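Researcher: I'd like a candidate sequence for this fold, 170 residues long. If you have to choose between options at a position, lean toward the conservative one.
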């Protein structure tokens, strides 16, 4: 077996240490850290793709994190708990919407502030919510709408053929 140069061993060890440091940094700073603040709740009919750790955004700026999701067995609605920054004073009539971060991106909660003088407190619930839009349902409505339009045009053309042409008024 060939003798190893001590410089090669030291360089290899340094590379492994740097790789371990990057891995440790990535694990610690994945953006999944909980935000210290107030906990709020929201009920949705559907939250397709929303997961624990998803962002909560206000005006496009991350202000919190989704901390839990569950289904209410009485209403069959999704109940989402989220934590937002403590200095954020959200009006009581603010709304929470499940929004998409892009065509194939993840989901987040978008908060739209209201105008009420009273604010949501720790443990409060958003009373105005908007569920996630399903891409499959939207495409289905579009395809069905195009099919119906085509059918209506065909019916009009068939009527035109079967009815004699009317003379223009004089």
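Model: Candidate sequence:
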């Amino acid at each position: 077996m060939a003798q190893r140069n001590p410089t090669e061993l030291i360089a290899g060890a340094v590379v492994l240490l740097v790789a371990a440091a990057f891995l440790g940094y990535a694990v610690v700073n994945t953006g999944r850290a909980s935000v210290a603040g107030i906990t709020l709740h929201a009920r949705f009919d559907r939250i397709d793709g929303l997961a624990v750790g998803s962002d909560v955004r206000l005006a496009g700026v991350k202000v919190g994190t989704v901390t839990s999701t569950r289904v209410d067995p009485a209403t069959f609605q999704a109940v989402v708990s989220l934590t937002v920054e403590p200095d954020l004073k959200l009006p009581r009539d603010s709304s929470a919407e499940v929004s998409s971060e892009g065509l194939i991106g993840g989901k987040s909660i978008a908060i739209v502030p209201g105008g009420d003088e009273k604010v949501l407190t720790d443990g409060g619930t958003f009373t105005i919510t908007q569920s996630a839009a399903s891409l499959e349902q939207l495409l289905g409505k579009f395809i069905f709408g195009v099919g119906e339009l085509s059918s209506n045009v065909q019916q009009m053309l068939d009527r035109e053929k079967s009815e004699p042409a009317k003379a223009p008024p004089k």
